[in-house]
Amino acid sequence: MSEVIDRSLLRLFRKMERAEEDQRIRERKRTPRRARPRCGARTRQGTPCEALAVWDFENDRPRNGRCRMHGGLSTGPRTEEGKRRSQEGARLGGRVSAERRGHDGVGIM
Ligand SMILES: [Zn+2]
């Protein structure tokens, strides 16, 4: 009997926690979708891209002003170390991980 009550109390408690979280999200000030900037990249038709720029919800601003198709998601490594790692990966083409799996790398590419 008390077990049933315990469980329903727990469920109620979780429900209240969720409601509080929803309230916090709703109260947070953020730029409405219609007020967010467009991508503006030049399309193949020569017109500016009208897609919304990728939005950084944490900071309530666009990531870099471009949409997901025009570099908004990632524009590649920026630091020298990152660029070096990227080039290394392209040069080795999977041979390093093959070695770790016990393959000699021959016949991979
Ligand atoms: Zn775009």
Descriptive report:
This protein is mainly alpha-helical and 109 residues long. Among the domains are: 1-30; 31-75, no CATH class. Helices cover 41% and strands 4% of the residues. It contains 3 helices and 2 strands, in the order αββαα. The protein has helices at residues 2-27, 80-92, 95-100; strands at residues 55-56, 61-62. A two-stranded antiparallel ribbon has the order 1-2. The protein starts with a helix and ends in a 9-residue tail after the last helix. The relative contact order is 0.08. The mean pLDDT is 87. Bound molecules: zinc ion (ZN).
Name the descriptors:
single chain; 4% strand; flat; two-stranded antiparallel sheet; 41% helix; 109 residues; 3 helices; mainly alpha; 2 strands
Query: Which overall shape is indicated by the principal axes computed on the Cα atoms?
Result: flat
Helix percentage range: 40-55%
Query: Order of helices and strands, N to C?
Result: HEEHH
- In total, how many beta strands? 2
Short description, anyone?
This protein is 41% helix and 4% strand. The protein has 109 residues and is mainly alpha-helical. The N and C termini lie far apart (66 Å).
Write the layout of secondary structure elements.
Elements (H helix, E strand, L loop, with lengths): L1 H26 L27 E2 L4 E2 L17 H13 L2 H6 L9
Antiparallel strand pairs: 1-2
This protein binds zinc ion.
Zinc ion (ZN) binds next to loops.
